[in-house]
Amino acid sequence: WHMFWETQPVRHYKDGENQEQMEGAIDVPQPISDIKQEPYNLPSNYEWCVCDVTNDRIMKEVYALLSNNYVEDDDNMFRFDYSVQFLRWALQPPGYFPDWHIGVRAKASKKLVAFITGIPARVHVRGKLVFMAEINFLCIHKKLRAKRLAPVMIKEVTRRVHLENIWQATYTAGVVLPVPIATCQYWHRSLNPKKLIDVGFSRLAPRMTMSRTVKLYRLPKETLTPGFRAMEKQDVPAVTQLLQGYLSQFVIAPDFSEAVVEYLLLPIKNVVNSYVIENPKSHIITDFCSFYTLPSTIIDSMNHTQLKAAYLYYNVATVTPLVQLMNDILIMAKLSNYDVFNALDIMHNESFLKNLKFGPGDGHLHYYLYNYSLSAPVKPLELGLILL
Ligand code: NHW
Ligand code: EN5
Predict the structure, then answer these.
(1) Is pLDDT of 16 > 70?
(2) Less CB within 10 Å around the terminal CB: N or C of the chain?
(3) Which of 71, 130, 138, 168 for mutating ligand 1's site (highest number of atoms within 8 Å of CB)?
């Protein structure tokens, strides 16, 4: 069954989904002095390394591993193509730990063959503030799969997280593991329908022509809401306030400081785009929206090699209707040449997805907590956390 996951402090299916569950940590913290001081053993021809993400040579290796071996869709048509710039951004938030960027190399050739990362985060879980690691970018070279290397990597990152006196983690995956706290669906809004159809990302609907499809997804040439502009450094306090107020309603949500908002949400070209609505008269920032850039490699295509995708990130609408704000962000993504705009059915996103011509995708995203049990599963609309 789940040889590895059975041994871990996570919920198990046998726990019984109908029973009353305690809410909180599954295992109590150990004394730091009891934590294993040496790394876990790898098969003898492999060795651990720390991947210094500030080093260009090492980042080229990480990029090569991920761009050829990271997550694909169910039909192996598209593979995530996280850029070096994006990875640097994702992996160095305030307070990050360099030794949570873990690689595995072949001893003889020194080739990088596997990777896993953690970053620290403060996350509210039903009102409680929990210090966590966010685990991401677990990747094993295709030639080394199904050799039980993943459990060793997960145990090693866990050990290094424990050494910082952190005992909980969160992660998302497209696959079902023991046991999701929530299951979400991806939705897609075509921006460049012709290319999406050409590469097999989407299909011409029955009784639709290409020209009618292109027309259906057409968007205005400029944004519609007065005061819509790119977020700037001076907006950090206002945006932090907006986010803290908005996110407090969700069962699971990040606890954003100004430092984290500045780091994660100030625009970086081809990495993250953020916009605010500044009231033209009062100059008050009333609304906020953002997306991140994550292209996919088109695995077997004649004409195209990359799909340019925008993923909805955090948004807060207090004055502008959410659908109007989202329409403007779609316009920005279209103007910046993205092919598709993706969003999850979390937070209040259901309220605009159909209206703005998003369609359901074939991929799901499962959310997980490590060493934390919830008394009840969470609905997608109760999730306020987005992992990259
Ligand atoms: S999800 C993306 C994961 N990466 C990919 O899908 C890339 C393509 N696939 C691969 O590289 C975002 C490999 O297939 C991987 C598995 C490496 C996925 N999470 O080595 P074996 C993340 O990065 C279990 C967790 O033989 P493999 C989140 C599987 O159930 N576990 O498999 C990462 C089995 O255990 P079981 C996963 O195919 C979160 C065991 O691995 C998993 O060669 C990590 C088999 O290992 C997945 N995505 O390599 C957890 N996929 O019990 C963090 C498979 O069933 C936990 N498995 O026998 C928290 C840690 C920190 C705690 C701090 C307090
Ligand atoms: C860790 N942070 O399956 C995350 N993507 O729907 C790792 N489908 O792109 C976990 N199969 O539905 C990530 N087109 C898990 C997701 C893995 C990638 C994945 C799905 C999400 C996806 C596309 C392409 C499917 C190709 C065949 C899809 C339909 C679009 C259509 C547009 C028009 C309106 C209807 C929908």
Answers:
(1) no
(2) N
(3) 138
